[in-house]
Amino acid sequence: MMEDFFLRALGGGIGAALAAGPVGCFVVWRNLAYFGTALAHGVLLGVALGLLLRIEPILAVFAVCLLLALCLTLLERQKLVSVDALLGVLAHAVFALGIVIVAFMERLRVDLIGYLFGDILAVGPVDLWLIFGTAALVGAALAWQWRNLLSITVNRDLAAVEGVPVERVRLLLLFLLAAVIAVGMKIVGMLLVVALVIIPAAAARRMAATPEQMAGAATAIGVVSAVGGLYAALWWDIPAGPAIVLVASTIFAGSLLLPVRGQSGRERRGIR
Amino acid sequence: MTLAASGDESHGPPLVRARGVSVRFGRRSVLDSVDLQVHAGEIVTLVGLNGAGKSTLIRVILGILQPERGTVERAPGLRIGYSPQHVRRDPILPITVRRFLTLGARARSDRLKAALDEVGAGAILDFPLAEISGGEMQRVLLARALLREPGLLVLDEPLSGVDIASQSELYNLIGTLRDRYGCGVLLVSHDLHLVMAASDTVVCLNRHVCCTGRPQAVLRDPEFISLFGPHLSESVAVYQHIHDHRHDALGEPMAIDADAPEPATEPATGAARQP
Predict the structure, then answer these.
(1) Domain total of chain B
(2) Domains of chain A and any CATH numbers
(3) Does the pTM exceed 0.80?
(4) In chain B, which end has fewer C-beta atoms inside a 10 angstrom radius, N or C?
(5) What residues of chain A lie within 8 A of the CB of B96, using their CB?
(6) CA B166 to chain centre
């Protein structure tokens, strides 16, 4: 027998995986893993602000992540502090701020653990709408700008000379990443949301010979992880978010045994 | 007077003209009122030491970087084919040479093959981009630039990563492409031997334009000599002397004026120095 909450959890997990798969590929291709982690640290601040201003938490988190991404983009222009250090500064500053604000709101009783590790079994109908709305938006935006996104990923300057509006395309990707983090945190929590983005994409590399295949494979791996993790959580009575991440990690480990696709004979001949 | 060698009106208006371009990074002046122009059918080479601002000037001319002062005018409808100095090729992105080429310009398979054949890299169309050699990558970048049917080719260090044996071959190829398509070529190179043999105009950059003109004239310019040293200047001059010819498409030597795009009406002045 399927309980409603379990079906909603399945739906939420699958929806988040659909959004995270292709965006995750760009995160992996463009070395944005730590950038994504920094954005995810804004989750608590977003949740707190959402409760204060009576906005849906997912939307408030999305707004805060987007703002963080824009701040980082602006701060990157100063050359004194490296981007790496900058991410560390901003991530922990907003995380600390989030905790402080949550502490002030004792009366509202924020479920801190739920936001840190995710609470997929508490996915409500509104969450489902937001998650699938985001997945649809991400899919449409990627389809629309796929070629430009690939082009700036390979080389920004070349893309700029060839007429790609580099800054706008880059901002679109940050926008999508913020959206994925906002819905993903509901599923696996802020501490693990980047795993949902990166691990399926990394696991997909060996199964793909083209960028599109890799995005497709990442999405499929994400969906399998979400479903597998949920059932594992139900079966062994373990937390669902970490279970999903562990299934994805296992698939990644298994993928290392596969031969790499998208490789000519040249390199392999060289090894022999 | 800005540029003696390319100021020749027989060329018509330039494809691209930079005037008084200045760029600062923080407090450091990288370019200081630089003038540069490239005409159709002309090979202009930027030489200069590391940190002279060569790549920065290229980025300004391409419109990627806004200069602090100065202007860049392009001929209306000018299409630029660009080959950057470094293109990161990370194996995490599964992309073939074919796909890389079509990111620049949508083209059918036979056109892609023809473009690669033209730069002598026809065999690697379906190779993963991350696996090809540095020299092959330079050819692929050149092919991607050509697929855009450019009026102006901008090549930033097109010989980097190319083994010495292939360097002159590739350099000859650039000349051949110029002759075949009549495009202007703006080149960055630090290999003076090759530069001097094939350029129409050399612009010696050291944040400002030190000197500019025909290769032979620039070689004798005191500013050039003080920058690169008398020894280098002489050795290049000797080299130039024995290579007083060009190569046709098959690499065969031919007289230098056989189909040179510039008539010998060039003013026999020395290099024009910037004030």
Answers:
(1) 1
(2) 4-191 (1.10.3470.10)
(3) yes
(4) C
(5) 210, 262
(6) 17
